[in-house]
Predict the 3D structure of the following.
Amino acid sequence: MPQTKWVYTFGNGAAEGRAEMKNLLGGKGANLAEMSSLGLPVPPGFTITTEVCNAYYDNEKTYPEGVSAQVDEALKAMEGVVGSRFGDASNPLLVSVRSGARASMPGMMDTVLNLGLNDETVAGLIAVSGDERFAYDSYRRFITMYSDVVLGVDHFHFEDILDLYKEDNGLILDTDLGAEDWKKLVVEYKAKVEEETGSPFPQDPRDQLWGAINAVFASWMNQRAETYRKLHDIPRSWGTAVNVQAMVFGNRGDDCATGVAFTRNPSTGEKAFYGEFLINAQGEDVVAGIRTPQNLTLKGKEDNNSDLPAMEEVMPEVFKQLDEVRTRLEKHYRDMQDIEFTVQAGQLYMLQTRNGKRTAQAALQIAVDMVEEDLITPEEAVQRIEPASLDQLLHPTLDPDAERKVIARGLPASPGAASGEIVFTADIAEKKAAAGASVILCRLETSPEDIHGMHAATGIVTARGGMTSHAAVVARGMGRPCVSGAGELRIDSKHNTIMVGELTLKEGDIITLDGGTGEIMLGSIPTIEPELTGNFAKLMEWADKTRRLRVRTNAETPADCQVARNFGAEGIGLCRTEHMFFDADRIVAVREMILADSEEGRRKALAKILPMQRQDFTEIFRIMSGLPVTIRLLDPPLHEFLPHGDAEMQEVADAAGVPVSKLHERAVKLAEANPMLGHRGCRLGISYPEIYEMQARAIFEAAIAVQKEGKDQVEPEIMIPLVGLRKELEILRALVERVADEVFAEQGARVKYLVGTMIELPRAALRAADIAGSADFFSFGTNDLTQTTFGLSRDDAGAFLGTYEQRGIIEKDPFVSLDQDGVGELVALGSERGRSTRADLKLGICGEHGGDPASVAFCHRTGLDYVSCSPFRVPIARLAAAQASLKGE
Ligand code: PEP
Ligand code: MG
């Protein structure tokens, strides 16, 4: 049997892997291989596959046979290319060890640099570099990183030793320390490691290497990585690869540098090279946000008001080379790239390329520009945008005319406006947000430990860090507005205060930030609605051309209907009439109706509601003219409309002219042990037909009135909720038809209309073939259908579903994303059975799932005619429907 290939080499203009092998080599490994094959300057190295990671975890953390030998062989090949040997005391090969999963998980897992240094090889590094200080500095960095990542000796131990050393010797900055200082510190660091772990710091480079490989695989299961995976829907089973690569040094003098760049602006999408670098610095220094980086281009320097020289000025040759690499990578990958590079002694090395994370605004700009540049097709552009990310564009921005008191400026790291209470820690951000507060997380800088707080916050501010700092990258990925590097803010997280100028802010104070301009303002500032024109409109037009599934909205107020129509809704899929019953001007009559003892009494009260309902529907029909409007007859149990507190009870009793005892009596009578499964939905229509009669009359009278105004045809679709038995629908359908005939006769005019039902109960789905005999359409009410299929109360599930998700019992909250296996099977079965009776049965979905991209794709595959979702999700559903079509499912 041929041996499994566990290790893939790259470098020297060749590679065993390719960009398409991301699943096996991880994103980083696959792209290093690709760049190598393209002939770009990539330090040689090798990738240990994700299959090794999975095998390692499947076999109680042991490696499959052959891995070790293949690593040795790859190491040898690397030595050949570089011309130095691993562990050689005179000319040592040093390596970096990094993780690299299929999807990029910035900052989530561990990295070790300068591996291969020990008491002997450090002498070799001095000989080769001719720089003793650099060699000892590298060695102490290696000890710090390795001890932290592999040996579990925390960073702060080394920081403390360093601080003490500086104090004792009257030194302030790291750059004040010379070779002798670092040399002494290396001795102290090693002693600390021995003290903490009980063993000396490992000197054998091979032990070091395997220690680091083990640590990278272990980091796949750490808490940060788990959280990130959960937030981004990355399955644990993907595993991570490990990349071992020859070190190049950006910290070997002033002709060395390290940097990160985007081939286009990741915030706005502008076609401009965009990045930052640090001279004489190593690896993570840029991302860590410890020093303020310099811009690559003069334009960037200007845009960011930087005083520091741009690379274009100080390293013009390297910049030119890098700019060429940028063009080549974009042409090759046909997408915006996020790259990492190092310059060693004036020579450029590429360390990474990947498709860059970007804001929704940038994603649109880039997709539209790339179509115009003939790099991609409109269909590809449609597939490039994450539907859920459109949310970022659909929300208000700061009113430009509103007064604003700017207290500080930072970098415009992630666009959008946010107001909220200042908080200083991720945990408090999470806690306050869970209690419903809007919070702005303010940190000196963020780290991967803060990710849950960043997610919970409505906005993020950091005092340090550039446009590619952790805060900036993560905020953009999450769509959170962010201002980074606001150096004027003195954030004191010990005392929970921010000092800025004369001002002292504390936890709970309200600030507003504009991530598009970098401004931070005092107090809360009014916002304006977004305009959906330009790139957005263009992309939506491309999306609409490719989708089959129609998109309607769930709305009942004229304002919501208008927003939805502006967002491209093609009708209303659910108008919940009970929301209209709660309006202050009619709740009195509604309660009067509930309190009435007789049908006659109820009819009297309903007659008062009729004109108001008619007015509601008239306004909706006007806005939606030419489009179908599905109106659901009354659904909730009647006691929901009764007052609760004693004072309110008395008020209602007085208004209705009945003693308060009667109200109590009625409330007791209407009380149910399990109202969600009680006297609601069509059961109300059966018990109190006069309610549904009034509603049907209001609908038909409104439709005829609007039609008489000369508007385009209105198509009411009258929907009966919570049907479980065909007989229920038959009775209520006959009622609606009778009222229609009455109104048509009175008005001397007719409108086209449909009568259908919601499928919200498993019995209705199972008996769909029978029920379809009385229905013109079905609309799957997947909120209730999820509740009734799981036997899971939608009002109480929040208390424990979180635990279910954490423990992996469910992947996603089934009230948010359709449980396709279970509830979905009922939807598919109900559709199929319904259509077996009526081939032209119109099918839609109006539960919350109608705006969830994964559920939209499911509805497309299942052959539904439309989805209906809340107004702000209409564009998301349009795009998700187009992507589902393009996937050809
Ligand atoms: C449903 O049950 O899915 C539905 C849309 O109705 P409601 O949420 O009003 O119960
Ligand atoms: Mg329902």
